[in-house]
Amino acid sequence: MYSNNKNAPSHPINFFDMIKNSGQVVNGYSLEQLKQDIQNKQTYIFCFHLSGGTERLMVYTPL
Q: What distance in Å separates the CA atoms of residue 3 and residue 36, rounded to the nearest whole number?
């Protein structure tokens, strides 16, 4: 399944690798904390910047 959003990657990409390789976590957020919260089924708000200055905010809520 792929997004129709023009800003979405056109190929599958690992979110954690994308942040680690071409992003920057901001505002006291932590990639490791996000991984732990996902594992523990916690809701998490995650703010990051991608290369090129694009700011993103991700909200993770377990189903």
A: 26
If residue 7 lies in a helix (H) or strand (E), which one and from where to where?
A: none
pLDDT digits (tens, 9 = 90+) for 16-58: 888 888 888 887 778 888 888 889 998 888 888 888 788 888 8
How far is 57 from 30, CA to CA, in rounded Å? 13
Q: Which residues pair with 60 in a beta bridge?
A: 44
SS (H, E, C) the chain: CCCCCCCCCCCCCCHHHHHHHHEEECCCCCHHHHHHHHHCCCCEEEEEEECCCCEEEEEECCC
